[in-house]
Structure formats: structure tokens, C-alpha cells
Design a protein that fits this description.
- By secondary structure, the protein is an alpha/beta fold.
- It folds into three domains: 239 residues, Aminohydrolase, N-terminal nucleophile (Ntn) domain (Glutamine Phosphoribosylpyrophosphate, subunit 1, domain 1); 189 residues, Glucose-6-phosphate isomerase like protein, domain 1 (Rossmann fold, 3-Layer(aba) Sandwich), CATH 3.40.50; 140 residues, 3-Layer(aba) Sandwich (Rossmann fold), CATH 3.40.50.10490.
- The protein contains 20 helices and 24 strands.
- The strands form four sheets. It has an eight-stranded antiparallel sheet with strand order 3-2-4-1-10-9-11-14, covered by helices on one side. Strands 5-6-7-8-12-13 form a six-stranded antiparallel sheet.
- Strand 15, helix 9 and strand 16 form a beta-alpha-beta unit.
- Helix 4 packs across helix 5.
- It is globular and about 80 Å long.
- The chain binds 5-amino-5-deoxy-1-O-phosphono-D-mannitol.
- 5-amino-5-deoxy-1-O-phosphono-D-mannitol (M6R) binds next to helix 9 and helix 17.
Length: 607
């Protein structure tokens, strides 16, 4: 994992690289580095930590190179130290690498025997050494000679001291995009770093090498043959990715949830049958009508969205649905056929385990859809159809607005399937569609209690253990709340099906473990209240999240956050932003770097 970037053209490369790397920090921020060619010499600057720190380090240096590479690292091989930070140089060559070189130990031994000295513990450094040793005055030829020696995965950016007007790149199983400007070219792990400069780009495929210069771009295959590529256009607005006055992206993105859901529903949710209109290559009506089962695949928060999606598809559309973690599913034998729909849920569309699960299902004959916020992502490009979120860019590592927008799409899918399969009286579907249409306003109302949430977080921030309980559709929200508390505050939190707590978890409960109980009114409400009493009786303080005006819940809980009324199935659209906000304020009280939690990255592109 990691983010890479490169620039060649008419501008000073350094500011372009630094701005671009800031947009790639979601891919890792253990260390960061840039490499340029200055007065005929390679010039490399690195630091542990963030791009801002590197920027401070570079202040005052007069670097005017118009070619350069940059890297923000999420450590796989080798500790997050300065030596292991990219770029890595060998002789006249410097490289940045995202991926894993499986045979690096063997190559390293061979190169050491030939006299090469290594400065890092990384797998990546061998790539620089191999290219340098193959160099005979032509960088492209040297890269083409070195690549067949590598086994593993890579997105690469390469510069050469002796060729200051050219930038090389190559891809094997790790995303890499080339941006085409006027007299300039960019390369990056995704389109965001160069979106302010050009809307034109193309995605490298496996086994392709790019030669970039101010004069244009040429793509070759590994035999050196020219590969024609089709240009794609970015419709993404870079301004949306700015913090807009908020202290952290996460807070901004939580408050963008109503808009993300509104945009995701816009033009698709219809007041009457067929209830949904997919403008994109959405699910085919025939398949939805006749399919035997649906498998929802995801990781992290997207997995939690899948758990809620299962309830939507089963309860609303009567469609048998399984939910799978990408990392588990990919190594099993998928029991699927062409009447199985597999939906990979991934806001980034780049999570390696979800992609691998989708590929495994496709190889066994299933029809594959991607539910994603990134229409140009690998998942979207590989799938048979795409269910798009229109949530706008999400920068903070913690998924918030995209999680809720995923729920909105899954609900629309269930409404659509229910209509096609004639599983419910139309009147019932119409009511549900109308309620879904009111969700953005309901989320706005739910978020209006931020001050209360902040005050609660202040009171509860000193604990080291938290339990979150929910039943039915609220159980995945409990898992989601616990994940957010863990990843942002670095404390133990456990989400549990409320009815399951007495099977073991209750042994942890005492006055030192506050319990968050999701108890909006509905089918499982009474049972949840019983479970609330069980943990309260063991000394736990109870923070309940329930329906507005619920006096009974208010009487039983120590603290209560109220949600606007929505049908029970839809209540996660409102309760999730509230638990996101609670987790945010807990982390803030603990003085955590909310947007960059330790050891994490936004897009998990390694296994
Ligand atoms: O881009 P994806 O939806 O595939 O990402 C999946 C997970 O990596 C992601 O949800 C992760 O768990 C977040 N840090 C949760 O806040």
C-alpha cells in the first residue's frame, strides 16, 4: 500500500508533488519523500510522518527541477524509519514503489554479491538497483530489462539523473493513473493529485510501462511494443476535497452526510413503481427478477453496510442474501452460478480483499457489480455493472458519509428488486420509498444535537473499554460504532448483538465499561430494553440512542441521544452519523489525529 506521484513538464515539480501527496495521504502516512533532479544530480528529501512536516523541511531550499517523484508510505516490508522511506536511489536511478516484491530477498542477495550496497530494509530498493545496473543510456530500455526480474506487485515511478526530462512508470496489479496536461504529464495512485491540473487521464493496465515527458506520453507493453490507450475524463471536483473551515475532514464529512445521501438518491428514487431508475449500468431487471441469491462483499465499514444491506434485500425484496468479508471469501470456493449476483461494496473501489473476492466470484460464473464512490476505480472498471454513490470525495481515513450513502443505495436496490419480484404490496413499497426520500432531512435533524454529543463524549472519554449493543438492523450499527471508537481513539470497544451479550461478553461489564445501546423503537425494541437492563444491573452506565420522545428509554438510560422518527429499517441512516459524531468527539478529547489514525490507511490495497 502507499501512494505514489510523479510529475514532468514545464512547472517546478516540487509544489505539484507536495500538494498531490497531501491528497494521497489517505493511502498511508508512516513516512513521506520526494526526489527531483537538480543541477545534474538526484536530490532526495524524506521524513517520518506527514507531508506538512516534509514541506517545513524543504522550506528555504531553491529546488526548480521540472521532473520529480513522491511517495507517502504505509509500511509493509521494513519499519517506518527514515531509511525505509521512499524514494530509494541506486546510482543514477531513483524510484517510488507501491506494492510488494515477493522475490526481493533473492534479488538482494544477488545484487549484494555484485557489489551493490543497500541503505534500507525495504523490498523496493532492489528495483532501483536492478534498473541502474541495466542502464545503458536509455531509461525506458533499462526499466523494460529490469521488470521481468520482479515477481510480485508494483506501481512504479522512476527518474534518472542522466535523463532530466523524462519520467517512467509501470504497473503490475496495483493502481496507477497517468494524467495528460498541456506540455506536462502526471502519474499517481489515483486521479485526485492531478485533478486541479487536468481532467484527461488513462489507467495503466498490468504489464504496461509509461514513458512520460513534457512532449507527451507513450505506453509500451513489456516487449516494448506501443499500446494504444483511450483517454478518460475526470468529472470530480477538487474543491470538494478541501476542509472548508472544519478542523478535521472527518467532521466535515459527517456533516456532509445529508448531502451525500441526497445526491445519491437524486434522479434515482421515484415516488411510485418502479421506485428506482438507475442511470448507470445498474443491475439488469431480468437478473434481479430471476436471481437465486445475492452475495454482498466488503471490508471494514463497507462490510457493516453489507450486513444492513442483507436485511434490506431479505426483508424488502425477499431475496436470499449472504454477507462475506473479502479477505475470507477470496480463499474459499465460491458457491455461485450465473444466477448469483455478487456486489463488491467499497467506497474506494480499491480494497484488495474486496477486489480479490469479486474476481473469485466472477471466475466461478457469478455476475459482478461494484457499489462504489469511485467510478474510475478498479472495482468499477472490472465489474459487469456499477451502483454509484454520489457522496463526493471522502478524505478522512474513517468512512462516514460514504457508509450512509452505501445504505441508501442498498435500500434502493431492495426496493427495485421487490418491485420486479412482486414481493410486497405496492403501497408498502411506496411508503418506504417516501420515507427514504425524507432521510437526508432526518439526518440533518439528528446531527443538530452536536453539542449534546460533544458533552457526552467529554463525560465518557476517560474509559478504556466500551461496549456497543444493538439488535436486528441496529446490530451492524453497533459494530460500526465500535470500529470507529477503536480506530480513532485507540481504546477497546466491542460491538455485540444485544441478545448475545449474556453468552460471554457480560463478564466484562462493570462500572468501568460504559455501554452504548442502540434502541430505536421497532420490532426488537422491547427485547433490547431487556438486554439494556441486564448490563445496567451489572453496574454499567448506559448511553442510549433511541427514538425522539421515548420517555421509557429516557427513564432507563443514564444518557440519551434522540433520533428523528423513521421506519425501523431506515433508522441506521440516522443513527450511524450520530455514532460517527460520538466517536469523533471521543477521539478529539483524547487528542488523537482524527483524520490520520495510527497504523491505518484509507485505502487498503494490500492483502
Ligand atoms: O474503500 P472501502 O470501502 O473498500 O474500505 C473498506 C475499509 O478499509 C474501510 O471501511 C475502513 O474499515 C475504514 N477505516 C472504516 O472507518
Amino acid at each position: 500500500m502507499s501512494g505514489i506521484m510523479g510529475y514532468v513538464g514545464h512547472r517546478a515539480a516540487l509544489p505539484v508533488l507536495l500538494e498531490g501527496l497531501k491528497r494521497l495521504e489517505y493511502r498511508g502516512y508512516d513516512s513521506v519523500g520526494v526526489g527531483v533532479i537538480e543541477a545534474g544530480a538526484l536530490h532526495i528529501q524524506k521524513t517520518i510522518g506527514t507531508v506538512q512536516r516534509l514541506e517545513r523541511q524543504l522550506r528555504g531550499l531553491d529546488l526548480r527541477s521540472t521532473v520529480g517523484i513522491g511517495h507517502t508510505r504505509w509500511a509493509t516490508h521494513g519499519q517506518p524509519t527514515l531509511e525505509n522511506a521512499h524514494p530509494h536511489a541506486s546510482g543514477r536511478i531513483a524510484i517510488v514503489h507501491n506494492g510488494i516484491i515477493a522475490n526481493y530477498l533473492e534479488l538482494r542477495q544477488e545484487l549484494i554479491a555484485e557489489g551493490v550496497r543497500f541503505a534500507s530494509d525495504t523490498d523496493s530498493e532492489v528495483i532501483a538497483a536492478l534498473i541502474d545496473r541495466a542502464y545503458r543510456g536509455d531509461l525506458a530500455a533499462a526499466v523494460l530489462a529490469a521488470l521481468p526480474r520482479l515477481s510480485g506487485t508494483y506501481a512504479l515511478g522512476v527518474i534518472c539523473r542522466d535523463e532530466p526530462n523524462v519520467l517512467l512508470c509501470a504497473r503490475q496489479a496495483v493502481p496507477l493513473v497517468v494524467g495528460l496536461g498541456v506540455r506536462e504529464a502526471f502519474l499517481a495512485s489515483d486521479v485526485t493529485p492531478f485533478a486541479p491540473y487536468t481532467q484527461n487521464c488513462f489507467f495503466l493496465d498490468d504489464g504496461e510501462v509509461g514513458i512520460l515527458s513534457g512532449g507527451g506520453v507513450q505506453i509500451l507493453d513489456l516487449r516494448g511494443q506501443v499500446v494504444p490507450k483511450e483517454i478518460e475524463h475526470i468529472t470530480w471536483n477538487p474543491v470538494l476535497a478541501e476542509k472548508g473551515g472544519y478542523r478535521f475532514y472527518m467532521l466535515k464529512e459527517i456533516f456532509e452526510t445529508p448531502q451525500a445521501v441526497r445526491e445519491t438518491l437524486r434522479g434515482r428514487l421515484l415516488p411510485g413503481a418502479p421506485f428506482v431508475h438507475w442511470a448507470e449500468r445498474g443491475p439488469e431487471a431480468d437478473l434481479l427478477r430471476t436471481c437465486r441469491k445475492v452475495i454482498l462483499l466488503g471490508c471494514g465499514s463497507s462490510y457493516h453496510a453489507a450486513l444492513i444491506g442483507k436485511l434490506y434485500l431479505e426483508e424488502i425484496a425477499g431475496l436470499a442474501t449472504e454477507v462475506e468479508l473479502g479477505s475470507e471469501f477470496r480463499y474459499r470456493t465460491p458457491l455461485v452460478d450465473r444466477r448469483t449476483i455478487v456486489i463488491g461494496i467499497s467506497q474506494s473501489g480499491e480494497t484488495a480483499d474486496t477486489l480479490a473476492g469479486m474476481r473469485a466470484a466472477r471466475a466461478s460464473g457469478a455476475t459482478i457489480y461494484a457499489l462504489t464512490n469511485a467510478p474510475l476505480s478498479t472495482a468499477a472498471r472490472e465489474a459487469d455493472g456499477v451502483l454509484r454513490l454520489h457522496a463526493g470525495p471522502e478524505i478522512s481515513v474513517a468512512s462516514t458519509k460514504t457508509f450512509v450513502a452505501e445504505l441508501a443505495v442498498l435500500c434502493m436496490l431492495a426496493l427495485h428488486a421487490a418491485h420486479l419480484r412482486r414481493r410486497q404490496p405496492e403501497a408498502h413499497l411506496r411508503e418506504l420509498a417516501a420515507a427514504l426520500g425524507t432521510a437526508p432531512a432526518a439526518i440533518e435533524a439528528a446531527l443538530a444535537v452536536e453539542e449534546e454529543v460533544e458533552a457526552l463524549a467529554r463525560r465518557y472519554s476517560r474509559f478504556d473499554h466500551y461496549i456497543v449493543l444493538g439488535r436486528g438492523v441496529h446490530y451492524p450499527v453497533a459494530l460500526e460504532a465500535a470500529l470507529k471508537i477503536k480506530e480513532l481513539s485507540y481504546v477497546h470497544a466491542e460491538g455485540c448483538a444485544a441478545g448475545e451479550v449474556k453468552q460471554g461478553l457480560i463478564a466484562l461489564v462493570d462500572e468501568r465499561v460504559p455501554v452504548l445501546v442502540l434502541a430505536p423503537q421497532g420490532r426488537v425494541y422491547e427485547k433490547t430494553l431487556d438486554n439494556l437492563e441486564e448490563v445496567k444491573a451489572r453496574g454499567a452506565r448506559i448511553v442510549a440512542i433511541g427514538t425522539q420522545g421515548d420517555v421509557e428509554l429516557r427513564a432507563r438510560a443514564h444518557d440519551l441521544l434522540e433520533l428523528p422518527r423513521l421506519p425501523e429499517l431506515l433508522s441506521p441512516l440516522c443513527s450511524s452519523p450520530l455514532v460517527h459524531l460520538f466517536a469523533y468527539h471521543l477521539a478529539l478529547r483524547r487528542r488523537r489525529d482524527v483524520d490520520h489514525p495510527r497504523n491505518l490507511a484509507k485505502s487498503v490495497t494490500v492483502e
